Please model this.
Amino acid sequence: MQMPNDKQPPKRSMPEVDRKARLKIPRQPLPKQDPQARRSNWNEVYLPIRLELAKAEAERCIQCPAAPCVTACPVGNDIPGALWKLENGDVLGAAEVFYETSNLPEMCGRFCPQESLCEGSCVVGKRAAPVAIGRLEAFVADEYRTSGGYDVETPPVVTGQRVAVVGAGPAGLAVAEELAKKGHQITIFDSWPEPGGVLLYGIPNFKMQKEILDAKLEYLWELGITFQGNTYVGRDVTIDQLFERGYQAVFLGFGASQGNQLDAPGADLPGVIIATEYLVRGNLKPEQLPESMREPLPDAKRVLVIGGGDTSMDCVRTAVRLGAGEVTCVYRRTEAEQTGRVEERIHAVEEGVRFEYLASPLRFEAGADGSIERVQFSRTELGEPDESGRRRPVPTGEEFSVEADTVVIAIGYGIDQDLPEAAEVDVEDWRVAIDSETGETNRPGVFAGGDCVNGADLVVTAMADGRKAAVAIDSYLKDQATKAA
Ligand SMILES: Cc1cc2nc3c(=O)[nH]c(=O)nc-3n(C[C@H](O)[C@H](O)[C@H](O)COP(=O)(O)OP(=O)(O)OC[C@H]3O[C@@H](n4cnc5c(N)ncnc54)[C@H](O)[C@@H]3O)c2cc1C
Model:
């Protein structure tokens, strides 16, 4: 994960509040679906909250002048400012505070790792449970969306300048929105049939109902942004051709979507599937997928997921909802080294997922029908730290096997190297190299941001990159216009 930004909290006078009294307000209960019930539905875990509860939770914010939550937020949301409006009943005003610095508060409130960002630095959290910033952000943004906040009343004044955005994930959507609001004409190209990037083709419905993404996209189309799906830039159309077609700048936000493969015998057996394919075939309608992925997943009774991050949690919990009786997650280190959100693991355990730690796959074995039947594992123990700073798993020599009729490989993502090569942009350590201030690549007029620059990271950091690049692209376009005049 990227380091939080170095922005200072906005200068504003903090309201006078009785901090001691506020510290005594208990954290409000945030209602969740019962784990047994949610095993068989695709609805979000958290149930909607009432305004009175949201106001009471917002009142737990002690309005501390240092506001470390703001500096911990990669987009510098003025969290105390928003919560002050919320506790005073100005829900839409609170949402507008988030929208000043963020394009996707309804999503960040749902799936940012708040425990290591805003809530992790909340001063209240040093004495009690931190303020539930994420849930409150999602609450006010939901109210904003459902009460017409996305209606475009005055269309932006058109500049006549055109920008091509490659990738319709959080980075691409943010850059497109910011530039469209300035009147530029934006086309987003994506290799998937529909826009959203991982927000659609990855994150399952039980983390975010897809109506939320649909509403955001509707708003972007109203701003005049156009989308061209099923288009792999670098092959179906090149960057040179985009410039020839009259686009004056290009933003590369093509993510890190290449699922890492396991190099073990039998890893290509039928029934062994890579995480993204499993998630999209399990979560989306066939018509949202390319033809090669439209076949429904076979019914599986025993699903084994290899890997321990957020994607693995999405896979195990998808397997539960698809009806697998036995779902096991195998991770080569211990729970202490697991990346991803603790909350997601708790949800998985509550939903009946079994965890097997300290085990690394040795080989995949087929049954009589030629499909996967079991995976043979080597037990591991932790050795010296590796380059990630986490202790390296070392095989002990002990072996065991786990039976499964579907095995999902969720061991991280890499960046497609074909597009940067075709685009003739510099790459450093497999990532697109940019000027960190502007997001511009070595190629004039070509900017980049999100996972293709940071490596597999977060929705909020991708969006932050998109916002930053939009500022630089706008000023690049102004320079171009001045030169042409
Ligand atoms: C399963 C899963 C769960 C996750 N859960 C969370 C979470 O809970 N919280 C969180 O903060 N983050 C999560 N992440 C990470 C987060 O989704 C990413 O960091 C974020 O989506 C990156 O945004 P992006 O815009 O850079 O790329 P992406 O969202 O990956 O979008 C890139 C888009 O570019 C398109 N593309 C790629 N190559 C081309 C090409 N050559 N031509 C045209 N289009 C192309 C892709 O099809 C894709 O639509 C998760 C990731 C995964 C995979």
Observations:
- The pocket of flavin-adenine dinucleotide is lined by residues 111-112, 166-172, 189-192, 197-198, 202-203, 231-234, 253-255, 257, 279, 310-311, 314, 416, 419, 450-451, 457-460, 462 (CB under 6 Å).
- The chain has three domains: 19-146, 162-257+415-484, 261-411.
